[in-house]
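User: I'm new to structure prediction. If I give you an amino acid sequence, what do you actually give back? Let's try with this one:
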Amino acid sequence: MEEARTVFEGLGAPLWAERAKAELDRVPVRRAAVELTATEETARWDASAVLSTVAEAVSGGQLNQILSQLPSEYALLFGKPDLA
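Assistant: Good question. You get back a string of structure tokens that encode the predicted 3D arrangement of the chain. For your 84 residues, that looks like this:
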């Protein structure tokens, strides 16, 4: 929405730029992906507790098979520093 506002201002469309600004003011925007709410942080903690237990319960080969199918950032949820 911020990009739209900038474009509208550049095009000389102040009414549309003002509408974009009003929408930005109306809708709460998360400023950074690392800023989690308490609920999101609790969910991450809980998921990590479960997935770390899974990592301990399966063989190394099975864990590698699981991790190879996930994005690399999931390794931390399994208690691993990386997918290696």
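You can read the tokens as a compact description of the fold. Here is one thing that stands out. DSSP finds four helices and no strands in the chain.
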